[in-house]
Fold each of these.
Amino acid sequence: MPLFLLTNDDGYFSEGIKALREKLRSLGRVITVAPDRNLSGVGHSLTFTQPLRIRRVDEDFWTVIGGTPADCVHFGYYLFLDGRKPDLVCSGINEGPNLGEDITYSGTVSGAMEGRILGIPSIAFSAFGREDVDFSQMAEVAKKVVLKVLERGMPEDTYLNVNIPNLPEEEIKGFMLTCQGRRAYKEKVLKLSDPSGRPLYWITAEEFGWHLEEGTDYWAVYHGYVSITPLQLDLTNYRAMEYFRGSFGL
Ligand code: MN
């Protein structure tokens, strides 16, 4: 029976983690450790400057007060699994996509990244769509990916970023292996004011379409495919090695 470690970045109460937990529990044992609040955009932050408290939510299900997705995976592995490696770390299903450069901000993807750092095959799941998302249908798609990975395994240093279009099952065109795309929307800063008239600032983003390059994560979900991007921990830009050779010795 497979053993899973599950987290997310939307909080333990989110529909996405509930649906995925239920689906994974039909396959094996699921240790769920998730933040107590929505931490979307928290990236790969790990809390080591202060202690944290943990509350039990349900059977094999805990929430870390103020903990990030990376904290949750950390606690799941070292505390609740006592250092025993699960077969798979899953993160999600996130409310909203994690595509292109956005994956660097993503707590969802960082949950999977933390799993990979601990030496465990890991998958991040996100919903392409924010309104009327059918998470039970998405979890069904996620299950197919999970089963395939359990069967085939995953190369070293690899984790997967999966984005699922919010479409009825019969309208999903299939799975597509993709590369990380580039986003085409702008961040902007809204200037607001508090009740006393003092300024407040709010970082937000204005979406105006995607860079629809074929083969990218954006392209796949936009065209109704489930996007599967293999990621790696090694961020080295090997192509740039040659460029800088000679500039810094050698
Ligand atoms: Mn999120």
Amino acid sequence: MILDVKEAMRLVAKHSPLLEAELEPLGPRTLGRALGGALVAGQPSPRWDVSAMDGYAVRSGDFPAAYAQALPLHGTALAGARPLALHDRGAVCIMTGAVIPTGADAVVPKEFARSSQDAVQIDPAAEVAKHDHIRFAGEEVQVGLTLAEAGTVLSSRWIGFLSGLGFSKVPVVRRPKVALLISGDELRRPGTGLQPGQIHDSNGPMLQAALAEEGIACRARRLRDSAPAVESALRRALEGADLVLLSGGVSVGDADHSREAFRKCGVETLFWGVAQKPGKPLFFGSRGGTLVFGLPGNPAAAWVCFHQYVGRTLRIMQGLPELPRRQALALKPPRRDETKTLFLKARLSGSEVRLLDGQQSHMLRSLAEANALAMVAPEERGSLLEVFPL
Ligand code: AMP
Ligand code: MG
């Protein structure tokens, strides 16, 4: 039975599990990943009372008298150095980030000071007041504060913030293990010569790159169009993978062995066939904890199915948000299809979208040039289209 797109997407979401969390070093490996649990501050920020300026740490009680008579200097406080003390009338030369000397309670910025070897003269324009230019311990983050909820996607900004609070490892949702199989006797590796009828493999490099865009490293394995070859490769791929992608051979041609292999390997069919163009023969199934997609061989169809279905699964598994989508006005309304959803390669510019020529499922040129994928459901009317920016 052929499903409509909404139902197919609902089934994909329903069968996609959120993977467990693992501890990873905070840094590039955690970039773009979802936190597997909430994080609570174990130390305050700032950690100490420190200077916000390069200047002089002073005792505000010495003012205004000190404007008239230079203050003796009692050393230099550098960032990272042990705290100094200032118990008598005087000043300590201080750098941004250095701990405020005990006894001092204000910082005068350098531009209001003239210093000699052992004394500093403060300009009355400094208007010294208690607590001036001091960053106080815990003013941004107090111990026990919830810093980030589970599901927070780690950006470089989060990584900086959490590193500053002393985190070196954080729990993040595990990346899925993916096996990528590319079938087709006609396929040759790009860079090798072609015999009549042969073509260069687009889907291998394309799907590998699409997986990399989702943060997943995976090698493509190329298969012959023979039932035993597809079956044995599938059997091996199913061991240990969270997700198996098999490109090609999923339709009803004489050389299409994917579905028979799914059956022989015990993959339960969740759906086969979606009322969409391109990508009608899309297969989705599962065996144990492993999900399986059979992607159409036609490259544009394979990519659209990856973008709309495989990507959805990968984001759910990783606890990541759905693809952003928006509405845009079609410059020329598309011809609709009463029976299926169309995914159309398009160029988005501001709030307007232009549908490209060359929409057939074997055509990658328009897909490469597109910066958006427009979705036109059978029931939709008017020129406002649902669009996925690429
Ligand atoms: P299939 O789904 O195997 O029937 O393939 C449908 C069409 O897509 C055929 O014209 C294939 O030659 C083509 N095709 C299949 N796999 C690939 C691939 N990896 N790269 C480029 N074209 C492919
Ligand atoms: Mg084929």
